[in-house]
Specification:
The structure holds 2 protein chains of 2 kinds.
Chain A: H1 6-9, H2 11-22, H3 30-43, H4 47-50, E1 67-77, E2 81-90, E3 97-101, E4 120-131, H5 137-146, H6 166-176, H7 183-186, H8 200-216, E5 233-237, E6 249-257, H9 260-271, H10 285-291, E7 300-308, H11 321-332, H12 335-349, H13 354-364, E8 370-372, E9 375-377, E10 382-385, H14 393-404, E11 408-412, H15 415-420, E12 426-428, E13 433-435, E14 445-450, H16 461-476, E15 478-482, E16 487-491, E17 494-499, E18 510-513, H17 523-532, H18 537-552, H19 559-575, H20 582-598, H21 606-630
Parallel strand pairs in A: 5-7, 10-17, 10-18, 11-14, 14-17
Antiparallel strand pairs in A: 1-4, 1-6, 2-3, 2-4, 4-5, 6-7, 8-9, 12-13, 15-16
Helix pairs in contact in A: 2-3, 12-13, 12-18, 20-21
Chain B: H1 74-79, H2 86-92, H3 107-120, H4 140-151, E1 155-159, H5 160-166, H6 168-176, H7 178-196, E2 207-211, E3 230-254, E4 260-264, E5 285-287, E6 293-303, E7 317-323, E8 335-348, E9 356-371, H8 374-378, H9 391-402, H10 406-413, H11 422-433, E10 438-440, E11 446-448, E12 454-458, H12 464-474, E13 478-482, H13 488-491, E14 493-497, E15 504-508, H14 510-513, E16 518-522, H15 529-540, E17 543-548, E18 551-556, E19 560-565, H16 578-582, H17 586-589, E20 594-598, H18 604-619, H19 622-628, H20 632-645, E21 649-650, H21 652-670, H22 679-695, E22 700-701, H23 703-720, H24 732-735, H25 740-760, E23 765-767, H26 768-778, H27 785-797, E24 801-804, E25 807-810
Helix pairs in contact in B: 3-7, 5-6, 6-7, 10-11, 11-22, 21-23, 22-23, 25-27
Main location (chain B): nucleus
Family (chain B): Belongs to the MCM family.
Subcellular location (chain B): Nucleus
Chain lengths: 634, 812
């Protein structure tokens, strides 16, 4: 058996050994054993921290064909591909035939015997994965810091987040891979077959797009959010690919493949677009670029094992159901005190408004925990109205939230943004991929909609579509992806927080009007002070853990309390049928749930129910007040 | 014989190795191999000349769709000499079973079997549209051959299911070795054809195109085992390429002596003659393009249809190559069933390197296309696509249908998260099933609407939208739009220029897309009048007429409409009629079969049940809920099955009951001098009764169906058509927009006004305000301005007076 670190540095050796060993005993199920072997290894204490992560180690520091991990979101699923699972090679000099394993590899050895009867064709699936969109920098830093991976050229490597841009990386890799360096000048019109007439039509088809993209030379990595950085990856899945869904977040352990031959394939195409092989002509140049980008830019990862991520909070242990519950229950005790801290902090941030702060906490720990046919349960979209518009208050608020939640995204709802951004992912049939949009987010991402940025003006078609998409997201927690000939609905689980001056134009589960108790003379200074203010690192971490844990807790309502709640509802309606509708009861139940969880209680108590009712009463009375003051509020 | 044949066609670049020679472009490996035992016809028969009849005389057209009959590597072939000339050899050595190398196909036997199939196969129950006009009790395919001899289109489509039912072994061979078996079929059919019709002249020899292979139905289930097999998949065309000319035969001419020679493309490669056979010049031959032979080829991308996909995944795509006359048969957006051979070709990393990317490129060589949505535009055949149900499923569904409370069960399974509103759910359930389609076009009345339209109105926040969402998710052809967000164009159809081809294309909107389905329209009241007017036609005639950009057509929009509307005053005003509350034109309202109010019942027992229901939503686990209600999938299948296979007819008894019910309805009002039912209500009743019979899987509409239809209709009416002033149900509220009492009142005021004016004597013009004041002074009851206006309008209609601005003038 290989020594401790061999399985990280050269996992293929392990696999090949197993493959060779299995040849004598058919039906040995070596594939399952191989996967099992790596799973076992990773279970060992801290073993997973030794594996270098694509998220925080620049690609060119990673050893090809070594075991790496990647924390990612499945952005697109490509078509399944058939590959040579087992094939035979013939040595040209000795004519000796050798059986080889093609699994976990992109490129075969030389001298493949295509007519061998021992060839086994197998199927695998390719996922296009991107780093979790909107992942905040503290998460990335924290993950990087906990890594104990030995990266080979360690003398020059300082684990810092300041990575060089990818253009640089690409250049760098070009240097490394000398052979195809001269490809650029070659891509002139004097390709050898130029004067052949019969491929005119093909050239027509392929040349047009290549002209425009060669100049830009940068490949669109298709990140859901603009301005994202990080590697994207083609993950090859060998088994059970049906159990993965689009937008799942995973930690993939797999074998890194950056064979320059893969890039050569792509380069060759560009260099000689006129000489397209007819079998390849089933793909346009565009498609070719998307499906086989240079490996230096988009590495291939052959998945050995993938753990679905319950959360991406580095401060919590990786969840594996057994010890997970132990961890959660251990943290229950101090939740109340952390909550009090968080409440006072938020109260401060929200200009002394404790009620809004309460609701903000509830919002941040909400999650869609179940769906009843079309109805998502547990969502809690909050609309904070009455936010001061001065001195970028909303941006500051977002920065504070950003410090607390693992992933978030700020969307200023300016007309410009609404009319021009692509929020909904759309299928591009030319390139045969799903072009991502800002609403393709991982679960439990906080989406911060800033409606104070919205000015008067006209929404065009895109704008209307975007607003509709946001409305659908909030009401049904789903996004209808645009497949041009039809739409396809993908459920999601995104926490939407809307800040606005008056009631938002978007629907929301709950609207709270912020009543500022303190009116700081200099808002900028006030916010600046709380931002740094005493939130020491450990303090901050406590809050971060708190918010993630509260979301993971289980919750139940006892038989007895069900009865009490029902009675309560009937009584309330008896007094005044207008006072509470089914809708209100829905909200009240969610508030009670979140309130209990925020205090670390996993079942509803009478006390909590009353407190939830009280909160709601305060909120509605404030709304009425506000309506009276403003008069013409809807 | 080894069936494990993994022989891959090498796809070789003929990148030039000698620099002084023109490089030959590579071509797909799909040349018919002339040396194969399966080749027939003479290779030179392509040369022009008068077509002669007979097998030998008619040129064979190459079948790029099948590719070459793959030759095993030479060594292997020689080690197995038996295969060389299958058909003839097998007759010679009758004792020895000779088969094509790598398969278990014996050409002679196979041919014989297929000929027997063609001559004998009868399918009396056939209902395919291809077979219309044929005598079903005669051998089907012989009639088709006759057709070919008349029409001259040398293509014979063969339904694989027929082959299977006739000879399972032959079918297995066809599926497993299409490349060998289909040419054998071709041979068989041509022999048979020219034997029967020795004098007929065809442009080409007949080609057999099998379709409807059962092997695979879904793109997702394609796997390596399907390679080189005959498969049928369904999907949607998303992109088609331009036409790709593919060289079949290269023409070379010597530059020195002008000697010319032809070279066939062999597995993608052209063996370029190095030496001229005439003058022995080396490397003196050049390729002459315009004398080479090309065939047409087109790349088509097909995407999985949305119905076949598991939730949360993206659709798969597959590349399909169409050859020769199949090129341009399909357009992007078409739903098609494709029958073809599944291929895998290894990819090369670099033509100059010998290691290959360990991945195969896969595609399908199309043999047959069948559009599945073709008939929707013509409306000839209903339910073109039939959902396939397994025996087991049908059994479960039938069992379910046998239960006495199936109606209640299904209705409670509908949107279980929405509480109560039993009648509304029942109404929607009946809508999902729909009535029976009747065609009276022979007698000149055209189609009768079979779909039930439902309008839900009520207070905001009564989960109307949720119901709509549920229905939209339940039915396969559902569309969901919001009145606010849709324009008339979005609902109907619009004409668009395709950016690529500059072709004018008709793009269909929600209503047309939901043909045979349900169109859910939320915020119906917010719709612009213009948009609404479109619905008039759709909701009764069920067609859409379009006259735009030179395209004039009538599209089918046999959709049921499920609409939701909010009251104008945001809260339902019980003192007003439905019309007044939602402000929709009565012409539109009368087209709804059922109008339901979703109001807060404000009753304690209801509250309690509601509370219990809601709370349980929040604490029951997923599994617990599942147990209580029918699975959505079962419900969906149940509905699909009933819609496809059940078409109930009225029984004598039921018709009587219906007549009585209608007469009763009319009687109710007649006592007070008002009409309480119109034929439209009778039609509604019939539809509802039929739908209810469908729920029971009954082919006959019986009394219980009528009773339920009556009950539901009455319930809906009670809610929506009760005159708030009298408390009676008054259908005229919905049909004329006014309750009878209101109309009477209007008339009275008009008469009073007329009298008053007449009493004033000859004054040609009067002030509006003064007239109103006078009338108010005269009348005992309060007269509102609206009432006064209406009275004036009524008099204006009588041509008694005109109103201009603030002045009222008498006429003549």
């Amino acid at each position: 058996m290989p020594s401790t670190h061999d399985w990280i540095d050269s996992p293929l050796v392990v696999i090949e050994d197993m493959f060779a060993a299995s040849q004598n005993s058919p039906n040995s199920g070596w594939e399952a054993k191989a996967v099992e072997f790596f799973k076992e290894r990773l279970k060992e204490k801290d073993a997973h921290t030794w594996v270098p992560s694509l998220n925080d180690v620049p690609l060119h520091y990673l050893k090809p064909n070594s075991l790496v991990k990647f924390r990612c979101l499945i952005q697109d699923m490509f078509d399944p591909e058939f590959y040579m699972g087992v094939y035979e090679t013939v040595d040209s000099s000795t004519k000796a035939k050798t059986l080889r394993c093609g699994k976990y590899k992109d490129v075969t050895e030389c001298g493949v015997d295509f007519s061998s009867t021992n060839t086994v064709t197998a199927e695998r699936q390719t996922f296009y994965c991107v780093p979790i969109p909107g992942e905040n920098s503290w998460v990335k830093d924290s993950f990087a810091a906990s890594s104990q991976a030995r990266v080979i050229p360690s003398t020059s490597y300082v684990p810092s987040r300041q990575k060089r841009s990818y253009e640089e990386d690409e250049e760098m890799d070009d240097m490394d891979a000398q052979p195809q360096k001269q490809r650029e000048p070659q891509s002139g019109p004097q390709s050898p077959s130029e004067h052949l007439g019969n491929n005119d039509s093909k050239r027509l088809e392929t040349e047009a797009p290549s002209g425009s993209t060669v100049s830009s030379s940068h490949i669109n990595l298709n990140f859901p959010l603009p301005g994202e950085k990080g590697p994207s990856c083609l993950v090859k899945v060998y088994e059970n690919w049906d159990c993965f869904k689009l937008n799942d977040t995973l930690e993939v352990y797999g074998i890194l493949s950056v064979s320059p031959a893969l890039s050569a394939l792509a380069d060759e195409k560009e260099a000689s677009s006129g000489v397209l092989d007819p079998t390849e002509s089933m793909e346009t140049a565009e498609e070719q670029r998307v499906h086989s980008p240079p490996a230096s830019l988009v590495p291939r990862l052959h998945m050995l094992y993938a753990a679905p991520l319950q959360h991406n909070n580095p401060l919590l242990p990786v969840i594996s159901s057994a010890d997970d519950s132990a961890f959660l229950s251990s943290s229950l005790g101090e939740m109340a005190s952390v909550r009090a801290e968080l409440l006072s902090y938020f109260t401060h941030v929200l200009l002394g408004d404790a009620l809004s702060a309460e609701y903000l906490i509830l919002h941040l720990i909400s999650t869609v925990y179940s769906r009843r046919d079309v109805l998502p349960l547990g969502k809690f979209t909050l609309n904070l109205s009455g936010c001061p518009t001065v001195s970028s208050y909303t941006e500051r608020l977002y920065q504070i939230i950003q410090q607390l939640v693992p992933s978030s995204y700020y969307l200023g709802m300016s007309l410009q943004n609404m009319n021009h951004m692509q929020l909904v992912p759309k299928k591009d049939y030319v390139a045969n991929r799903l072009v991502s949009g800002a609403l393709q987010l991982a679960k439990n991402t906080s989406l911060f909609l800033d409606e104070t940025k919205l000015e008067q003006g006209q929404l065009d078609t895109t704008g209307v579509r975007n607003v509709t998409a946001l409305g659908n997201l909030i009401s049904w927690q789903k996004v209808d992806y645009d497949f041009s000939y039809h739409q396809m609905e993908f459920p999601c689980n995104i926490n939407v927080l809307i800040v606005s001056e008056a009631r938002s134009l978007l629907p929301s589960d709950c609207q709270v009007h912020v009543h500022s108790q303190v009116v700081p003379s200099d808002m900028e200074e006030y916010l600046g002070s709380i931002h740094i203010h005493s939130q020491a690192f450990s303090q901050l971490n406590k809050l971060r853990i708190y918010l993630s844990v509260a979301r993971l807790l289980d919750y139940s309502i006892s038989e007895e309390l069900t009865k009490a709640v029902e009675d309560d509802f009937v009584d309330m309606r008896k007094d005044d049928p207008q006072s509470i509708s089914a809708e209100d009861l829905h909200r009240l139940l969610v508030v009670a749930r979140l309130l209990s969880l925020s205090l670390g209680q996993t079942s509803l108590s009478r006390d909590m129910w009353l407190r939830a009712k009280d909160l709601e009463a305060q909120r509605t009375s404030r709304m009425e007040q506000h309506t009276c003051v403003n008069g013409n509020e809807p | 014989m080894s069936l494990n044949r993994h022989v891959f066609i090498l796809n070789v670049h003929l990148i030039n190795i000698c620099d002084n020679e023109p490089c030959l472009q590579t071509v797909q490996p799909n040349e018919v191999d002339m040396s194969s035992p399966l080749m027939y016809g003479t290779p030179s028969s392509r040369i022009e000349g008068t077509p002669r009849s007979g097998v030998r005389g008619t040129p064979a057209r190459q079948r790029p769709d099948l590719g070459s009959v793959r030759k095993a590597p030479q060594v292997d072939l020689q080690s197995e000499p038996s295969a060389a000339d299958g058909g003839a050899a097998s007759e010679a050595n009758a004792g020895q079973r000779l088969v094509i190398w790598g398969t278990d196909v014996n050409v002679g036997i196979c041919k014989e079997k297929f000929q027997r199939f063609l001559q004998r196969f009868i399918d009396p129950t056939s209902n395919e549209d291809e077979n219309s006009g044929l005598d079903l009790n005669e051998p089907l395919y012989m009639q088709k051959l006759e057709e070919i001899s008349v029409v001259g289109d040398p293509v014979l489509n063969v339904n694989c299911l027929h082959v299977q039912s006739f000879d399972a072994e032959l079918y297995r061979q066809l599926i497993s070795y299409p490349q060998e078996v289909i040419p054998t079929f071709d041979m068989a059919v041509n022999e048979l054809f020219f034997e029967r019709f020795p004098d007929s002249i065809l442009e080409f020899q007949i080609q057999v195109r099998p379709y409807n292979a059962l092997k695979t139905r879904n793109m997702r289930s394609l796997n390596p085992e399907d390679i080189d097999q005959l498969i049928t998949i369904s999907g949607m065309v998303i992109r088609t390429s331009q036409l790709i000319p593919e060289m079949q035969e290269a023409f070379f001419q010597c530059q020195v002596c002008a000697y010319s020679t032809r070279v066939e493309v062999d597995r993608g490669r052209i063996a370029e003659p190095a030496v001229c056979r005439n003058c022995n010049t080396t490397h003196g031959l050049t390729l002459v393009h315009n004398r080479s032979v090309f065939s047409d080829k087109q790349m088509i991308k097909v995407q999985e249809s949305p119905e076949d996909m598991p939730a949360g995944q993206t659709p798969h795509t597959t590349v399909v190559y169409a050859h020769n006359d199949l090129v341009d048969k399909v357009q992007p957006g078409d739903r098609v069933n494709i029958t073809g051979v599944y291929r895998a070709v290894p990819m090369r990393v670099n033509p100059r390197q010998s290691n290959v990317k360990a991945v195969y490129k896969t595609h399908i060589d199309a043999i047959h296309f069948r559009k599945t949505d073709e008939k929707r535009l013509h409306g000839v055949n209903e339910e073109a696509e039939q959902k396939l149900f397994t025996e087991d499923r049908v059994q479960t569904l039938k069992e379910l249908a046998g239960k006495p409370d199936v109606y209640e069960r299904l209705s409670s399974a509908l949107a279980p998260s929405i509480y109560e509103h039993e009648d509304i759910k029942k109404g929607i359930l009946l809508q999902l099933f729909g009535g029976t389609r009747k065609d009276f076009s022979q007698t000149g009345r055209g189609h009768f609407r079979a779909d039930v339209n439902i309008l839900l109105c009520g207070d905001p926040g009564t989960s109307k939208s949720q119901l709509l969402q549920y229905v939209y998710n339940l039915v396969p052809r559902g569309q969901y739009t919001s009145g606010k967000g849709s324009s008339a164009v979005g609902l109907t159809a619009y004409v668009m220029k395709d950016p690529e081809t500059r072709q004018v294309v008709l793009q269909t909107g929600a209503l047309v897309l939901s043909d045979n389905g349900i169109c859910c329209i939320d915020e119906f009241d917010k719709m612009s009048d213009n948009t609404r007017s479109v619905l008039h036609e759709v909701m009764e005639q069920q067609t859409l007429s379009i006259a735009k950009a030179g395209i004039i057509c009538q599209l089918n929009a046999r959709t049921a409409v499920l609409a939701a509307a909010n009251p104008v005053e945001s809260q339902w005003n019980p003192k007003k009629t439905t019309i007044e509350n939602i402000q929709l034109p009565h012409t539109l309202l009368s087209r709804f079969d059922l109008i339901f109010l979703m109001l807060d019942p404000q009753d304690e027992a209801y509250d309690r049940r509601l509370a219990h229901h809601l709370v349980s939503l929040y604490y029951q686990s997923e599994e617990q809920m599942e147990e209580e209600f029918l699975d959505m999938a079962v419900l969906r299948d149940y509905i699909a099955y009933a819609r496809t296979y059940i078409s109930p007819r009225l029984s004598e008894e039921a018709s009587q009951t219906l007549i009585e019910a209608y007469v009763d309805m009319r009687k109710i009002g007649s006592g007070r001098g008002m009409v309480s039912a119109y034929p439209r209500q009778l039609e509604s009743l019939i539809r509802l009764a039929e739908a209810h019979a469908k729920v029971r899987f009954s082919e006959k509409v019986e009394n219980i169906d009528v009773e339920e239809a009556k009950r539901l209709h009455r319930e809906a009416l009670k809610q929506s058509a009760t005159d708030p002033r009298t408390g009676f149900v008054d259908i005229s509220i919905l049909t004329t927009g006014m309750s009878l009492t209101a109309r009477k009142r209007k008339e009275e005021v008009a008469q009073a006004l007329k009298k008053m004016i007449q009493a004033k004597g000859k004054t040609p013009a009067m002030k509006y305000q003064q007239l109103l004041d006078d009338l108010r002074g005269q009348s005992e009851t309060a007269i509102t301005k609206e009432l006064f206006d209406e009275a004036l309008r009524a008099l204006a209609d009588e041509d008694y007076l005109t109103v201009t601005g603030k002045t009222v003038r008498l006429l003549a």
